[in-house]
Specification:
298 residues; CBS domain Like; 28% strand; five-stranded antiparallel sheet
């Protein structure tokens, strides 16, 4: 489990979401057998998506954060529900790079900058709201800050961090997204910028002091007021029925062809790696169901 705290400050001109997600990122590491660099890349993306999802007002809404910068790690993707529960994957989870000269994991080089950060919000309407921006650094936090400025015209700052322990487990993970509302006075903006510039390293705060200290440092002298605390988790919504529906969508001929070799079909969820097996007989039943569905539609 993890936690998201939402708060306001600076006479309500500032709103902030802070996530503590060590257990969530550790769960993702175990599911996908992530390298340290991949743990950091996916972990940051999971934290960002979780906070974005928690900002949604509509029940059953979801947000998808997709990053592809042309780097060796490939696509990094996370999906969160309106509560902030999140799931995700990395295209090449074993990708690992030498540490940067400052001793930190080289997420930027793994992700790359030749590509886009895309945010898709599904609010239950006919089409999702989709916005994209070019990647700035591949470090994800800077890229998300640029996304808010360019795609949504919102003044925001984002901090994301994952601390990998010597045994490769996750020692700390989390992030914050702070947004300025229109009309914020210059003195409030200056104080916020100064606080963020001088705050301790995010993962150090989370590891040693906890999520409340992130609020204290980011919103120092700005009279923060906590609005909501929410528990979050790594949560996948896959099911055998959903996989069956996906198989039916490929069409009768393809299902029959898959069934004819007698081996059946095996598929796994990209988010949780849970395996689903279908016998040849079950594939033929799905093919027949596809025919019946088409007949009803006609």
């Amino acid at each position: 489990m993890g936690e998201i705290i939402r708060a306001v400050a600076g006479n309500d001109f500032i709103k902030i979401a802070i996530a503590e997600a060590r257990d969530i990122v550790e769960r993702a590491r175990q599911i996908h057998s992530l390298s340290p660099t991949s743990s950091a890349a996916l972990g940051r993306t999971l934290c960002a998506a979780s906070m974005l999802g928690n900002m949604l007002k509509e029940e059953d809404a979801s947000v998808t954060l997709r990053i592809n910068g042309g780097g060796p790690i490939g696509t990094v993707m996370a999906v969160a529900d309106f509560c902030g529960n999140v799931r995700g994957y990395v295209e090449r989870p074993q990708t690992d790079l030498p540490l940067r000269s400052d001793g930190k994991l080289n997420v930027g080089a793994a992700v790359g900058t030749d590509g886009l950060l895309t945010v898709s919000r599904d609010l239950g309407l006919r089409e999702p709201y989709v916005g994209s921006t070019r990647l700035v650094s591949g470090e994800i936090a800077e890229d998300l800050t640029a996304y808010f400025a360019e795609s949504e015209q919102v003044g925001a700052a984002c901090g994301l961090g994952v601390l990998v322990d010597t045994d490769l487990s996750i020692k700390a993970a989390g992030g914050f997204i702070v947004q300025l509302l229109p009309g914020a006075p210059e003195e409030i903006i200056a104080r916020l910028e100064n606080n963020i510039f001088y705050m301790d390293q995010l993962t150090t705060i989370l590891d040693e002091d906890g999520i409340e200290t992130v609020i204290e440092q980011v919103l120092k002298d700005l009279s923060p007021r906590i609005l909501e605390r929410s528990k979050i988790s790594y949560k996948c919504y896959c099911s055998r029925q959903r996989v069956s529906d996906a198989l039916v969508s490929i069409g009768k001929d393809a299902l029959v062809e898959m069934a004819q070799d007698g081996k059946g079909a095996k598929t796994s969820c990209q988010f949780c790696d849970l395996e689903y097996n279908f016998t040849s007989a079950e594939l033929l039943e799905l093919a027949e169901a596809q025919c019946e569905t088409r007949a009803l539609e006609e």
